[in-house]
Amino acid sequence: MTFIEVDDPFYRVFHPRPAYLIVSGRDDDVNVMAASWVMPISEEPWTLGLALDRETYTYKLVKKYGEYTVNVVSDKDVDLVYYVGTRSKYEVDKIKERNIPLSPSKNIKTPYYTNALGYAECKVMKMIPVGEVDLVIGEAVAVYADKKLFTRYGWDLRKTRILMQNIGRAFVTNSGTPIILKR
Ligand SMILES: Cc1cc2nc3c(=O)[nH]c(=O)nc-3n(C[C@H](O)[C@H](O)[C@H](O)COP(=O)(O)O)c2cc1C
Fold it and tell me: For residue 8, is it within any domain?
């Protein structure tokens, strides 16, 4: 094997990664952003880590209310993911602008994305500053998955196309078909 030493951004080596929608806030102050830097951390309790840039509006809402939802989406939502991942609620009300459908959660006051394949309702346990982000450790108090797509072995990948980001505007799904967004 011949290696090249990778230059910035280093994280390209660790992509593709699923691109999720993070919904935060409640009542009349709700927001949606994209996040790929999400990982399960522990099983007891169920926890998910999210690397959350402190300059995002989502960070403000997560800090204020201590809860959020992590929403798994399909490749059909690639435009939406890119849109919410490149604009901030500090500038535009993305939910209103794109008419993003949200539904009430059961255990927290933050809604989830209605068209999600699955989602987790999370309550913040800890926020740890690392560089420009906070590593948000959230307890996944309940996790849901589309009955038609989910089996005891996880997602039925013959039927489910989970959206992943390679880098920038380059996305891929588990079929292996690249989705390159036009400028
Ligand atoms: C596919 C994709 C993945 C992203 N992953 C993350 C992430 O894991 N953490 C993060 O803080 N920002 C991530 N971003 C950037 C945020 O979504 C972006 O800063 C967004 O504009 C924040 O919105 P807000 O200010 O309304 O909260 C990602 C963007 C895209 C397009």
Answer: no
Other CB atoms within 10 A of residue 25 CB: 23
Count: domains in the chain: 1
User: pLDDT per residue over 148-178, tens digit each?
Assistant: 999 988 999 989 999 999 999 999 999 766 7
Q: Which domain holds residue 113?
A: 18-180
What is d(CA 148, CA 103) in angstroms, rounded to the nearest whole number?
A: 19
Model confidence, pTM: 0.97
Rounded distance from Cα 1 to ligand 1 centre (Å)? 34
Instruction: Enter the tokens of residue 134.
Output: 């906070």
Positive/negative CA dihedral, 99, 101, 102, 103: positive
- Angstrom distance (rounded) from CA 128 to CA 182: 36
Pocket perturbation via mutation, ligand 1, pick of 29, 33, 60, 181 by most ligand atoms within 8 A of CB: 33
Q: Does residue 3 fall inside a structural domain?
A: no
Q: What CATH number is given to the structural domain containing 99?
A: 2.30.110.10
